[in-house]
């Protein structure tokens, strides 16, 4: 938990994602055991950042606009459907970045199946990871040794998408490792987000799942966790029937209209809304009604002249030449 | 005068031989089970480096994973002020600090270019003409644990075609922004040998008025490599090393026996020994040389060896079936000339495949980035070649089946006259026919498996080039099984069709059932015939 806070803080402090972070990390701000692949840490950081960006973009016209506080957990979050979405998108972001770094070859050993060792681990096994140091030790990667080399020469080494999911799950489950219903729901939602595909695809899919997310009662969730009747008395958990691919939550969303510092809600007062009737997003078309009027605020129009890049010419990578156009725009705010 | 071993071997010895051969076949198959899959793919994400001096023509400037300035194309900030010609996609092979082993034999590279939807940079034409400036370098490990500096290996500017589609129904409006296009993969290079430890690809997508103008917003470039698995090569070469001396030995033995006879060798014997020769050539484990020498022509060479073997095997079956069908009209000795109609089709077919192969693999010796598959015309041509080869293989098979069916019919007609013969003679011929039928069945199975595996391997070779969704994977066991089958079958043919030295008394010895020794009957003694079955069939034909 502490770890993620640090990661997010580090990222928000630096406009560029990759290199500053690496130098920051090498000054060992984070409790990283010797030997942890730096790329795993980088991937977790970059993945979280990617998730935040996508989340804020996807929810820019909603009352809940995906504030950063959702990810830093500086205060306890209610297990609402928004939290559910946030958990899932962070998982997706981390899986995405680890997968990329794997196929770039910068996470050692993530291709060959032997890298993680042992049988595939399932959820209950991670719950008891005690602290973040132990968690990170579990992410320590073996440097390819002689045995790996001969294995590679014999049977090759394909990139294994399940590796990224495995690492991301280990990391995220350790953040919500207790046996309370809220943690169960968080683990479930992280699992929903752990998917390997293009991030654009996943993020779209998750928004859809957010709309169709299901509320569970605390009793249902408690029934899904039970003490195994073995000598170890291990806690086990199972999926709630029919929820295998849905985002789930426990609490009704609070009123996002009004400021509530205790819950980390900044309210919609002062938010910008849009009257762009051409927009294909219903949320944008209705944003002024939704954010301002329904919340009891009024819409204020601000006339503004902005300079924009226009008439750009493109090469396959980048914009090459643009003109600057002056444009009169109306901006709307809730007051 | 002796016949062939097939006719004269005792039932017990024959069954021991057949059991041995079958066991050998099963072992070949089982050996394939311990081998890893023949080839393995590895997908690699390129690192995008910034080349500050794109005008610099020095070919030995290489960008690696650790190049000084790395950018991310999806991050707008990191690309401001850059132009397409500044960007270099660098991929170091293999991943994870591993190094290639020479046992891995060859390397194929396929590009996957990820293009995302951008309102201002939409793709207008679904078929995109790509201009790729691709360079390859190599490096080797040094004894002190370091690596040698990157050395130039190949460079070419190539055109490729890529088809990109967008699922308009799934995503609408603003959600399209940043959503990926569905693009086909692009074959990039094919290396005939993996001599060096590391390879580095530097790819540029040059931009000018005529180059890469229709490309949308590129976000990532992946290189998928396919190489042979070292374990598979080891087992494969092991099989060859085992069979090579065996087949050479049997050939020598066979030819010696033929020469001990006081007649010139018959056509079937010539064909058998040349079949053994092509198999020995195929078995020759020259792969060992590729462990020490750089041999980029290995792929071409093994294709040629395989092709010669196919041609010989297919010709053999035609002649083999023909010899037992007795095409000759006057009982005169058969020569190869009688089969020219049958054989010329095989030769022409194989020549076509050879020309096609030389076009692709031959040019690849000079330019590993060359591919016949890249242009639409080339793809269609290559595809039609493969389809044609598949069709003619199946046609051949049906024709062969037809010939074998005629052989059987021919024999069963002759069989009807058996009851009129003396008991000794009848038993003699019935036994031979039974054995011969068994051998023919083995031949049909062998031919069917060969044709099927030929078609499958053609499909498998083409699949990564025209459709990545097609999943045809020939497992190692099938490869080694088929390879073992050819060896076992040809060994069996050489042994069973070798002239027998047994001299039998004039009265036939008749035992019970399996233990009958099928001796030559004095009436059949004819120095110019190799087997009493052909004589029998011929005689019946004349009668």
Automatic annotation (TrEMBL), chain A:
Ligand for members of the frizzled family of seven transmembrane receptors. One of its GO terms (biological process) is cell fate commitment. It is found in: Secreted, Extracellular space, Extracellular matrix. Keywords: Developmental protein, Disulfide bond, Extracellular matrix, Glycoprotein, Lipoprotein, Secreted, Wnt signaling pathway. This is Protein Wnt. Its main location: secreted. One of its GO terms (cellular component) is extracellular space. It holds the Pfam family wnt. It comes from Phaedon cochleariae.
From TrEMBL, chain B:
InterPro entries: WLS-like_TM (IPR047843), WLS_GOLD (IPR053936), Wntless (IPR009551). The keyword Membrane applies. This is Protein wntless. One of its GO terms (biological process) is intracellular protein transport. GO terms for cellular component: endoplasmic reticulum membrane; endosome membrane; Golgi membrane; postsynaptic membrane; presynaptic membrane. Residues 229-501 form the Wntless-like transmembrane domain. Residues 48-227 form the Wntless GOLD domain. Keywords: Cell projection, Developmental protein, Endosome, Golgi apparatus, Membrane, Postsynaptic cell membrane, Segmentation polarity protein, Synapse, Transmembrane, Transmembrane helix, Wnt signaling pathway. Interacts with wg; in the Golgi. Interacts with Vps35, a component of the retromer complex; wls stability is regulated by Vps35. The chain crosses the membrane at residues 235-255, 267-288, 308-327, 339-356, 381-405, 432-456, 476-498. It is a multi-pass membrane protein. One of its GO terms (molecular function) is Wnt-protein binding. Belongs to the wntless family. It comes from Phaedon cochleariae (Mustard beetle). A segment polarity gene required for wingless (wg)-dependent patterning processes, acting in both wg-sending cells and wg-target cells. In non-neuronal cells wls directs wg secretion. The wls traffic loop encompasses the Golgi, the cell surface, an endocytic compartment and a retrograde route leading back to the Golgi, and involves clathrin-mediated endocytosis and the retromer complex (a conserved protein complex consisting of Vps35 and Vps26). In neuronal cells (the larval motorneuron NMJ), the wg signal moves across the synapse via the release of wls-containing exosome-like vesicles. It is found in: Endoplasmic reticulum membrane; Endosome membrane; Golgi apparatus membrane; Postsynaptic cell membrane.
């Amino acid at each position: 938990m502490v770890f993620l806070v640090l990661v997010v803080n580090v990222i928000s402090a630096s406009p560029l994602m990759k290199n500053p972070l690496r130098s920051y990390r090498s000054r060992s701000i984070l409790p990283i055991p010797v030997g942890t692949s730096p790329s795993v840490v980088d991937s977790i950081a970059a993945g979280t950042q990617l998730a935040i960006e996508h989340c804020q973009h996807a929810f820019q016209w909603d009352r809940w606009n995906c504030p950063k506080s959702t990810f830093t957990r500086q205060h306890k979050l209610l297990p609402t459907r928004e939290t559910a979405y946030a958990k899932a998108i962070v998982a997706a972001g981390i899986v995405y970045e680890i997968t990329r770094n794997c196929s770039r070859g910068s996470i050692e050993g993530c291709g060959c199946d032997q890298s993680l060792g042992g049988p595939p681990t399932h959820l209950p096994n991670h719950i008891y990871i005690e602290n973040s140091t132990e968690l990170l030790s579990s992410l320590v990667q073996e440097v390819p040794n002689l045995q790996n080399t001969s294995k590679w020469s014999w049977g090759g080494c394909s990139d294994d998408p399940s590796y990224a999911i495995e690492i991301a799950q280990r990391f995220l489950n350790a953040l919500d490792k207790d046996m309370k219903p809220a943690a169960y729901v968080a683990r479930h939602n992280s699992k929903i987000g752990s998917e390997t595909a293009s991030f654009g695809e996943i993020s779209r899919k998750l928004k859809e799942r957010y709309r169709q997310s299901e509320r569970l009662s605390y009793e249902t969730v408690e029934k899904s966790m039970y003490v195994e009747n073995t000598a170890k008395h291990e806690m086990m958990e199972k999926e709630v029937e029919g929820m295998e691919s849905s985002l789930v939550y426990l609490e009704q969303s609070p009123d996002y209209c009004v400021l509530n510092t205790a819950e980390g809600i900044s309210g919609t007062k002062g938010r910008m809304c849009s009257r762009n009737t051409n927009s294909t997003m219903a949320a944008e078309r209705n944003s002024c009604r939704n954010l301002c009027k329904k919340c009891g605020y009024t819409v204020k129009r601000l006339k503004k002249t902005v300079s924009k890049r226009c008439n750009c010419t493109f090469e396959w990578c980048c914009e090459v030449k643009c003109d600057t156009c002056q444009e009169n725009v109306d901006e709307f705010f809730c007051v | 005068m002796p016949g062939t071993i097939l006719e004269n071997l005792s039932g017990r010895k024959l069954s021991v031989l057949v059991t041995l051969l079958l066991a050998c076949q099963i072992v070949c198959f089982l050996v394939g089970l311990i081998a890893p899959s023949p080839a393995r793919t590895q997908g690699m994400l390129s690192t995008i480096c910034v080349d500050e001096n794109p005008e610099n023509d020095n070919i030995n400037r290489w960008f690696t994973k650790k190049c000084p300035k790395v950018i991310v194309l999806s991050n707008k900030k990191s690309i401001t002020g850059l132009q397409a010609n500044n960007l270099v996609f660098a991929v170091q092979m293999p991943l994870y600090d591993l190094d290639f082993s020479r046992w891995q034999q060859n390397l194929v590279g396929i590009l996957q270019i990820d293009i995302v939807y951008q309102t201002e940079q939409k793709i207008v034409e679904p078929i995109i003409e790509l201009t790729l400036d691709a360079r390859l370098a190599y490096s080797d490990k040094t004894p002190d644990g370091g690596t040698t500096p990157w050395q130039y290996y190949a460079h070419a500017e190539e055109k490729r075609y890529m088809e990109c589609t967008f699922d308009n129904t799934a995503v609408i409006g603003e959600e399209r922004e940043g959503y990926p296009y569905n693009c086909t993969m692009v074959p990039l290079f094919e290396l005939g040998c993996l001599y060096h430890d590391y390879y580095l690809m530097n790819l540029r997508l040059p931009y000018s008025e005529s180059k890469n103008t229709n490309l949308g917003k590129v976000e990532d470039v992946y290189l998928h490599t396919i190489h042979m698995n070292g374990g598979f090569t080891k087992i494969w070469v092991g099989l060859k090393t085992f069979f090579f001396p065996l087949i050479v030995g049997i050939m020598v033995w066979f030819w010696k026996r033929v020469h001990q006879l006081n007649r010139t060798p018959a056509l079937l014997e010539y064909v058998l020994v040349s079949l053994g020769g092509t198999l020995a050539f195929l078995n020759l484990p020259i792969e060992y040389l590729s462990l020490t020498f750089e041999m980029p022509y290995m792929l071409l060479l093994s294709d040629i060896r395989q092709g010669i073997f196919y041609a010989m095997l297919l010709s053999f079956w035609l002649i083999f079936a023909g010899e037992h069908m007795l095409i000759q009209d006057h009982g005169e000795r058969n020569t190869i000339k009688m089969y020219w109609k049958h054989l010329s089709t095989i030769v022409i077919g194989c020549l076509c495949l050879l020309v096609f192969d030389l076009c692709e693999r031959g040019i690849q010796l000079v330019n590993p980035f060359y591919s016949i598959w890249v242009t639409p015309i080339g793809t269609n041509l290559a595809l039609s070649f493969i389809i044609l080869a598949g069709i003619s293989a199946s046609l051949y098979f049906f024709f062969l089946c037809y010939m074998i069916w005629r052989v059987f019919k021919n024999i069963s007609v002759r069989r009807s006259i058996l009851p009129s013969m003396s008991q000794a003679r009848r038993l003699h011929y019935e036994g031979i026919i039974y054995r011969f039928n068994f051998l023919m069945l083995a031949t049909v199975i062998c031919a069917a498996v060969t044709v099927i595996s030929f078609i499958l391997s053609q499909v498998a070779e083409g699949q990564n080039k025209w459709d990545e969704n097609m999943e045809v994977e020939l497992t190692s066991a099938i490869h080694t099984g088929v390879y073992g089958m050819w060896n076992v079958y040809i060994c069996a043919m050489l042994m069973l069709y070798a002239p027998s030295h047994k001299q039998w008394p004039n009265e036939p010895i008749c035992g019970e059932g399996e233990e009958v020794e099928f001796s030559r009957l004095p009436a059949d003694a004819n120095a110019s015939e190799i087997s009493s079955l052909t004589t029998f069939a011929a005689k019946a034909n004349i009668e």
